[in-house]
């Protein structure tokens, strides 16, 4: 099986590097056994970056290796040594690559111009060591913050060829032969339809102007609806400054003539432009009446030239075989390209960073939603900040859990829960992502729990937590799942009892009728 060398659409799965964990360490030396906290911070994970490169023309590398990730940050160490940052992963892509969300199809970025960058997945932040967490009230923290995981994202990369001129026409109209005669490009040329399956680029020089010409796959009626190569053809001419209709004047197919061919192509362009909200019909268009080295074709070209000129089109009689008319055509294309370049502002490479949207509403740091039955409600807390704090917390360390509780209280989570009617013992779910609350932790709401550094016990301990009574997060989640299963079983039992009552009622009515 042949391996394709040109790939213009791939799905890429990327993940930023995880941040390194902070370290809880105490400085020790002779005659000074407890010299204070000196745990260093973890390193930041590496980003995954898409960068437009001049020497890349296909997405084939990501077709074979679709999973990529940035380097992980190193953990911190004692003596205030911070971990090394993870290495960024730079993925070169062709000029004209469009990045879309793989799940929703939403366009995230349009990468045009060599050097343009897109940070597609940011690395996770490193966790703080206990030296950075020390304060006047918490002088010797017995915990450190964990590093955050890197962002994960699945995107679709679509290549739209960046060319100055696009050659369009029916299959076997002579587009490949024309680009081979105008430039040093050597596309496959054969006497059957759809010889060209991928865009071919050629560099043409006319006077002082050098420009690129794209020979794209042939067009048939219905291409705007996906027939033939459909959008694989039309997508590659969206960026062209001008279009050249290459019309076969020597075709022997029934029902084909230059004017009909032009009308079919123009209709497909109009329908595609309307569907994609592009301005294809506003681009300058030239008409190349091809294969005029054939006597009958030259005669047909002379018949239709006046009609085409009357439509406002510039018409050229050309022959890719004899090179007749190619000089005039190339200079006409060069004039359009030069004018377009003079009018366009100078493009500078840009750096784009995708920022995750917060779960909370605009202007809010967190939201709280109630769900579940009236007698056993669950309170779901969502917000970018609260989710990040949960990811940073080591739940095997009581002091770290207490630190998280203090942060949530200062943010106002407990006050808002009380205002909404939360009762002691209710389940509070914090830090989840998605409809299934992935990565969330479950707390038992206890509004009377004191806060502050005065609640601290020995290093790594918190007096607010009784180890004999404290449930782990796993136990809370298992209890929550058991409660939901019991509620579902109760609903099924009530439904069965209701069906049985209806059945008995129907039997009683039958006996009464008898």
In short:
This protein is of the alpha/beta class.
List the SSEs and their pairings.
Layout: E1 9-15, E2 48-52, H1 60-64, E3 67-69, E4 89-93, E5 97-101, E6 107-111, E7 117-121, H2 130-133, E8 152-159, E9 165-168, H3 175-182, E10 200-206, E11 209-215, H4 231-234, E12 242-248, H5 258-276, E13 285-290, H6 295-310, E14 314-317, H7 326-343, E15 351-353, E16 367-371, E17 378-382, H8 384-392, H9 398-411, H10 413-420, E18 427-430, E19 441-444, H11 473-513
Parallel strand pairs: 1-3, 2-4, 7-15, 9-11, 9-12, 12-13, 13-14, 17-18
Antiparallel strand pairs: 1-8, 2-7, 5-6, 5-8, 10-11, 16-17, 18-19
Largest sheet: 6 strands, mixed
Taking strands numbered 1, 2, ... along the chain, how are they ordered across the largest sheet? 10-11-9-12-13-14
Order of helices and strands: EEHEEEEEHEEHEEHEHEHEHEEEHHHEEH
The SS-based structural class is: alpha/beta
Radius of gyration based on Cα positions = 34 Å
Beta-strand residue fraction: 15-25%
- Give the rounded overall mean pLDDT: 79
Write a concise keyword list for the protein shown above.
514 residues, alpha/beta, 11 helices
Structure commentary:
By secondary structure, the protein is of the alpha/beta class. It has helices at residues 60-64, 130-133, 175-182, 231-234, 258-276, 295-310, 326-343, 384-392, 398-411, 413-420, 473-513, and strands at residues 9-15, 48-52, 67-69, 89-93, 97-101, 107-111, 117-121, 152-159, 165-168, 200-206, 209-215, 242-248, 285-290, 314-317, 351-353, 367-371, 378-382, 427-430, 441-444. The strands form 4 sheets. Strands 10-11-9-12-13-14 form a 6-stranded mixed β-sheet, with helices on both faces. The chain is elongated.
